[in-house]
Amino acid sequence: MEMYSRVVGTGRALPGQPVSNAALVDRLAKSGIETSDAWIRERTGISQRYIAAEGVSSSDLAAEAAQHALHAAGLSAAQLEMIIVATSTPDMIFPSTACLVQKKIGASGGPAFDVQAVCSGFAYAMATADLFIKSGKVRNALVVGAEVFSGILDWTDRGTCVLFGDGAGAVVLTADQQPGVLGHRLHARGEFENILRTPGSVSHGKATGHPFLTMDGQSVFKLAVQVLDSVAREVLADVGDQVSDIDWLIPHQANVRILSATAKRLGIDESKVIVTVDQHANTSAASVPLALDVAVRDGRIQPGQRLMLQGVGGGFTWGAVYLRY
Ligand code: ACO
Which DSSP category does 198 fall into? Predict the structure, then answer.
């Protein structure tokens, strides 16, 4: 009997109160950085973001999102057999954020590890968990995307610091004879590592290099739209579905212009695209599970519908997970 992984619970966590564009503009003006609500809105579609207070870490947000997902799934932490956290902003070099989450939610014993694929991290983590479940090794898995990107932003670079936010989204996957995850594809092209990077490292107790996010925005834009289109078509071809079978497209939430261009290229109506970048900004690995949870809880996503989840980001990496909810 073929086994599938199925999403049985989702959850999210956003730190503190939203920071509006106006509030951010004021904050940046104090250090002489000029930007405007109009520029941010027009170029990105972002109107607010959440920024974690000092001391709030990715594992804090991940654990909170995980608790909500477990509650929605009707499972206890003790029933989890695997935890994967997608993050590029782990609490520390080690242990992994996943191990810290395991401790915080009171789970124990099963494998727990992080996946680092930047904004594609959640797709990578979902595909990994799906393969463990399909193989019969694991019954219940927790997959989280969690980021405190505010900690790696150069707050003097207006070209990047207005684009990102902090948060976490989680799903509980369980083994089922009914699908579930129908297919996935993951990709990377390391030759583009320089268009989006945080080129710092730690050596002899000191941060070296440039431990802040840098980006060639236009190159990222072009590549993102191209690969979000191609990877969706690959997964649909694997499964034998058409674009018209997708009920909801949930791409990585970097920028509304990327979302619109992707929908147009795929030939999917924009009303079928879940958009949360306006509310959360770009939360990297957290963006897709955050958007998923919003649309599940507001009732747009209904059981049996087909969802295309897509990640794209630093590496350069990209991937898609196609599932029946
Ligand atoms: N406020 C006001 N002006 C700004 C700001 C700002 N926050 N940031 C840049 N500008 C100015 C620039 O200085 C420049 O001014 P100039 O013409 O006088 O030199 C002007 O705006 C245009 O700058 P560009 O960088 O060319 O602006 P562009 O239209 O390309 O928009 C953006 C920038 C929004 C980043 C765009 O390139 C984009 O959408 N890229 C996609 C990448 C993205 O969203 N990345 C997110 C992370 S990647 C990921 O998650 C996959």
Answer: -
pLDDT at 1 exceeding the cut of 90: no
Q: Do domains 4-178 and 182-324 have the same CATH topology?
A: yes
Residue with CA nearest ligand 1 atom 48: 313
Work out the average pLDDT over 281-303: 98
Closest ligand 1 atom to Cα of 312: 51
**Which DSSP symbol is given to 92?**
S
Whole-Å CA distances, 9 to 141, 193, 219, 231: 11, 34, 36, 25
- Does the beta carbon of 221 sit less than 6 angstroms from any atom of ligand 1? yes
**What is the domain partition of the chain in residue ranges?**
4-178, 182-324
Please determine, looking at this structure, whether the domain spanning 182-324 carries the CATH number 3.60.140.10.
no
Measured distance CA(52)–CA(235) in Å, rounded: 35
| DSSP E strands, 177-277 | 181-188, 196-197, 200-203, 206-209, 214-215, 248-251
The CATH H-level superfamily of 4-178 is Thiolase/Chalcone synthase (3.40.47.10)
CB atoms under 10 Å from CB of 39, counted, come to: 14
Say which of 68, 184, 252, 280 is annotated catalytic: 252
Residue 197 to residue 271: CA distance in whole angstroms: 32
137, two tokens? 């090794």
* 0.85 exceeded by pTM: yes
Q: What is the pLDDT of residues 101-153, one digit of tens each?
A: 999 999 999 999 999 999 999 999 999 999 999 999 999 999 999 999 999 99
